[in-house]
Amino acid sequence: MASDNFLQQYEKSEVRTAWIFIAPLLLVVGIFVLVPVLGTFYTSLFLDVSYLPEQFVGLRNYTDLLSSPDFWQALRFTLAYTVAAVTLEAFFGVMFALLLNEVFPGRGLLRVVILIPWAIPTIVSARTWQLIYEYTYGIMNYLVVNSGLVSERINWLGTEFGAFSALVLADVWKTTPFVVLILLAGLQAIPEDIYQQAKVDGAGLFRRFYKITLPMLMPVLVISLIFRTIDSLRMFDLVYVLTGGGPGGSTRTLSYLGFEAFANDNFGMGSTVSVVTFVVAFAITLVYLKAGKFSEQLK
Amino acid sequence: MKQKMLFFLSGVFLFVLVLLLTGCQEQPRLTFMVGGAPNELAFFEGLLASFTAETGIEVALIRQSTDSTQRKQGILLALRGHRPDPDVMLLDVAWIGQIAASNWLEPLESYGINREDYFASIIKLADTYENRLIGLPLYIDGGLLYFRRDLLQKHGFAGPPQTWSELRQMAEQIVPVEREQNPNFWGYVWQGAQYEGLICNTLEFFTSAGGGFFNGTATPVIDQPANIEALRYMNELIHKQPISPPNTFTDMKEEEVRMHFHNGNAMFERNWPYAWGLHNAVDSPVKGKVGIAPLPGFMTGKSASTLGGWHIVMSKFSDKKPEAASLIKYLTSAPVQKKLSLKLGWNPGRVDVYEDEEVLTANPALKDLKQVFNNAVPRPIIPYYSNVSQILQKHVSAALANRATPEESLKKAQSEVQEMIKSYGIR
Amino acid sequence: MNATKITIKSLAKSFVTFRGKVDVLKSIDLEIEPGEFFVLLGPSGCGKSTLLNLLAGLEKPSGGELYFDQELVADSVGKFSGPFERDISMVFQSYALYPHMTVEGNIAFPLTNLPQVPSPKVMQAKVKEAATLLQIDHLLDRKPAELSGGQRQRVAIGRAIVRNPKVCLMDEPLSNLDAKLRNEMRAHLKDLQKKLGVTTIYVTHDQLEAMTLGHRIAIMNNGVLQQVGTPVEIYRAPINQFVARFIGSPTMNMLTGDLNEENGSLYLQADTLKIKLPTETACKLKPKNLKKITLGVRPERLYVITEGEQNLALPVNVIENVGPEFLIYSFHKQGQIVVRTPDEPVGDSLCLALDAGHLHLFDDQGARINL
After folding, report:
1. Cα nearest neighbour of A61 on chain B
2. For B223, which of B11, B410, C223, C252 could close a Cys bridge (C-beta 3.0–4.6 Å)?
3. Which residue out of B6, B234, B247 would a mutagenesis test of the A interface target, given it has the greatest number of A Cβ atoms within 10 Å?
4. Is residue B39 exposed (0-12), middle (13-18) or buried (19+ Cβ within 10 Å)?
């Protein structure tokens, strides 16, 4: 066994010292990560509502959840939202990162400015977007009405698709800078020589991007998309502020469903939603890692 | 040597951690948990200081945020954990059922409290759980109709509408004329976004149509015809010859509604009493032009007002029960209730304060409000009220958004509530 | 063989920065013959890499003209063809291999960008041919990260030759290799260039590489061409002190001083050192009536003698035995003087003779005095 050989290199006392050094960290991880995660799973096996006798129900919370149309609605919405938001963020992230990687006057300023949306707390930016979409005074209606695009104001959050788009737009606006930041770091790690070489080798602008930049950026792109995907799958605050899950409960995400269960003091069901959300996020991350295998090409 | 040092350090680390986790052993103390705006908290600080001065009982204030959801979570956390603190706290009327059913509240009869001092209907409907008195109204809220007195007069109406159809008729006559000057003018603004406020409004519509959510405390009657009719009326306010703005079911919460009316963009408004003071503030565009009345009914005299407000309760796990009772009696005493009304503009839970000359001079609207509070209907005082509310929010919102007909949505709501009750195993 | 001639006319390049205009190249005139292995030599910052980039088409000139054969490829008024249109290839110091492609992918990349992409079969054959030539045909499936420095170097060269370019440009391609590998690759490169016959321009700061590789060398300093010529020409007759010092290892000994005539002989008084110039040199120098000159003599042209007429005497400070010969160092106020001799010296001073045919004289401006 490799690990045995590895340990054999060290004296027993050294191994013990190492454990002592690691112990506090393990303890912290254990207490603050492992215990809550296992605790959540444990709670999900109970009917745990304060005013009812606590009762072990096995997987009933899970069967209840999976048989509820609300869950499938929320899952569908969450996935659609994630796909739309992450795709757009990847696209705009790459575009802006490429732009900011070029040398031009005012680049430093633009690099700072573009990060501002990300620095604003989600709740604050959600409130801002709420004002933007507002029916009577919002700037969105002001723009579309005054530019003559439509004659009547639009109730942006009034339809499922409208609310969906509004949420996606707010999310893309807020988190594209995060993707840009990571990609910019990735771009700067690509030496200028490689581009000159590619020019010499006859690759035009598009081929340089497609054959050189994109593949070399892929590892950081995949990582930033994993982050963004997990984040989107857990999305709560934007929905909470912008639509409250409406209209007619059509914009509830998985996290929002969990929140509703906790707000109802149904800790068993809340934990169940959390576990299911975790499983979904975990599965999608695995898919990413599998699909992103090419990141191993660069060591 | 080095290793001994390491063991020692890890020991200290563990010790600190254990201390943090178990919490230090405390002396029993009297605590009062309350949230709100800074000026409200400062006011309570002052009240507690005078309580200590009068009775010699030390009491500490545990501050919460203004956010109602967070306040509920904080209280649930303490009570679930059977913590001795807080001893006394304020509950929103909507949570009382759940917390009382969890058997976390101390019955108050044995502490010498006179029920006659308060609104009888409120004590009966909201503060009594399974025949035990478990709370007292500290501050009462109820839905009201605000109207533009000046515009009613201008268009030749004698008084505010008694019925919903009157309201519609008035609006349909007034709105087109007013729109000529103000394109943002609407007939009726109310709370229609998907949140708890929607249920307060819905309860008023349903009750005033002769319907309601529950028969007694265990039988949901959500899909009864009166409710369906009322919901259809709500939908038509927005969609059929609209007199309510299209964003009613997306944006309209208390403040959005209030601002709409406040800026002179609405004829009628449904809101809580707090808006009265703001509409009549010195810099208000509608100052002096506002009247209040009970909400209309589908028939004359069938008005309903959803009860809101905060109730004071004692934790069953309190380690200072007699002292806590003194505090509750102090905070609900006539002088303190009067102070609350004068300083914070809160509507007292005691009936006698509504007769007080000084209070009436400061806030003449209280006379009307007393009538409204007599008609107050509480949301169902049942443990699983928040589940019911959530289900209703979703389906009523769907009906308002034209995603389902009123009948479909209420039928779904009814069956979901029934299923929920079944899955909870409630008899 | 379709080797290309390169003509450079008054080529100049300047950059505008915040601190003002910087002239990196000042009016370069050069002709590079078809099939020539041409080396640009100079210290760092001399402008040689800029000149290479101008030739490559990676930068635009700010003055002058550049011809490939008869075709104008770049001038300062607007005519500009990119690297691919010029049909050049380039090897960078960093090799600039594409880390995400295999060796095969790297070498084939220029072919995939051709207007008419060759069929996979042709492409494979060409890659195989280039790889075989460079002895890396067994590494085609590897990624650059899995290769040694020398192997990466070969891949970069393979990529440069695979599409038979008109001109091959190399920017210090060997400087990232260790000494032993560098020598090996140097010989290999020379052989390869001879086989392919492609016009090659090679930038280096290493005079040994320049001497061994180049048909001709151009030495640059501060953006100006100092001397162009074959290695032998430059070694034998450096045109100024800069070139004289830059070429040759150990560096040419230089002594500056006043000329004095004593008893019909001409002496150079360099501080404490008094050097008698050979009669032949003296005769030619006298009519020029110079006061102050610099005498340059390469270490191997200082002859240690035991008898006969000496031209100068030096104390011995350090002796280095480098195997086939000895390097003797004598410290002097104007720097060290190095003597290269096959025999181990005896005693603590040296008697040295000069050979009039191998003396380099420079005037007080540093320019060569031709006798």
Report:
1. B423
2. B410
3. B247
4. exposed
Residue B82 to residue B312: CA distance in whole angstroms: 18
Q: What is the pLDDT of residue B343?
A: 85
Q: Which residue has the higher pLDDT, C309 or A297?
A: C309
Neighbours, chain A (3 or more CB pairs < 8 A):
B, C
CB contacts of A22 in chain B (<8 Å) are none
Q: Is the Cα dihedral C308, C312, C313, C319 positive or negative?
A: negative
Q: Looking at domain C253-369, what is its CATH homologous superfamily? A: Nucleic acid-binding proteins (2.40.50.140)
Report yes or no on whether pTM surpasses 0.90: no
Tell whether C16 lies on the interface with A, counting CB pairs under 8 A: no
Whole-number pLDDT of residue B4:
59
The sign of the torsion formed by the CA atoms of B200, B204, B207, B211 equals negative
CB contact under 8 A, A265 and B98: yes
Kindly determine whether residue A194 and residue C96, on different chains, have CB atoms separated by under 8 Å: yes
Looking at every residue in chain C, the average pLDDT score rounds to: 91
Segments making up each domain of chain C, as ranges: 6-243, 253-369
Q: Which of A143, A139, A220 is nearest to A187 (CA)?
A: A220
Across the interface, do B184 and A157 touch by the CB < 8 Å criterion?
Answer: no
Domain spanning C6-243: CATH superfamily: P-loop containing nucleotide triphosphate hydrolases (3.40.50.300)
Q: What is the pLDDT of residue B20?
A: 62
- Predicted confidence at residue B51, as pLDDT, reads 94
pLDDT at B15 over 70: no
C-alpha B236/C-alpha B248 separation (Å) is 12
Size of interface A-C (CB pairs under 8 A): 61
- Comparing CB atoms, the residue among A246, A260, A263 nearest residue B250 is A246
pLDDT score, position B73: 85
Has residue A297 got a pLDDT over 50?
A: no
Pairing of strands B266-271, B186-189: parallel
Q: Taking a C-beta distance cutoff of 8 angstroms, is the pair B51, B43 a contact?
A: no
Query: What percent of chain B stands above pLDDT 90?
Result: 62
Say if residue A247 is preceded by a cis peptide, omega within 30 of 0.
yes
Other Cβ atoms less than 10 A from the Cβ of A209: the count is: 15
Q: Pairing between strand B214-215 and B219-220?
A: antiparallel
Q: Would you state the pLDDT for residue A248?
A: 86
